[in-house]
What we know:
Blueprint: H1 2-35, H2 39-89
Helix pairs in contact: 1-2
Amino acid sequence: xxxxxxxNLLQTDEQxxxxxxxxxxxxxHLAELIDNSIPDxxxxxxxxxxxxxxxxxxxxxxxxxxxxEIFTVTDYLMDTEKLVKQVVKG
Length: 90
């Protein structure tokens, strides 16, 4: 379980880096759009924005899922540790 979480966290970390790069590029495109208002660029920007928004929503869902999984495994490990301590004492 812990190894699976580790793999998921590494994937989420990579996904985060990619999203950060895309957001920075998107902000750069926004600055260019403000400086050089060309209708065709606005359409491309809107499309890029929609894809970025969808991908950010997916990223947040994945992140929350990972967090939930970590808490579940942590609870399990803590309960197991308590059980082992009770058995050793008894």
